[in-house]
Write a structure and sequence with these properties.
Blueprint (H helix, E strand, L loop, with lengths): L2 H18 L7 H10 L2 H28 L6 H17 L2
Helix pairs in contact: 3-4
Length: 92
């Protein structure tokens, strides 16, 4: 796929997602107010815990696949883990 076609596709999909979710997502001002009101220590701890959780799940996935004879790099395993998580959280 050419670079332009890929860029146009990404922009189109992003625009479609934003258009679809326009009434479901709170205003950016509301989000910013919630973030500013949060305790930064707890917020940093939550982000660190989530990053560690995803990394460990990716490592587990990589090891399980290795036992089945499938070689997967850690960055690819992390990407698959984030994609799996996104699909899992967005579908009913």
């Amino acid at each position: 796929m050419g670079r332009r076609l890929k860029a146009v596709t990404v922009l189109g999909v992003t625009g479609l997602v934003l258009f679809t979710l326009r009434d479901s997502v709170p205003d950016p001002a509301e989000i910013w107010t919630a973030i500013r009101g949060a305790d930064l220590g707890w917020l940093a701890l939550a982000v660190a815990a989530e990053l560690a959780s995803m990394r460990l799940f990716a490592t587990m996935l990589r090891r399980l696949l290795a036992h089945g004879g499938v070689r997967l790099t850690l960055p690819r395993a992390v990407a698959v883990t984030y994609a799996r998580n996104a699909v899992s959280n967005s579908l009913p």
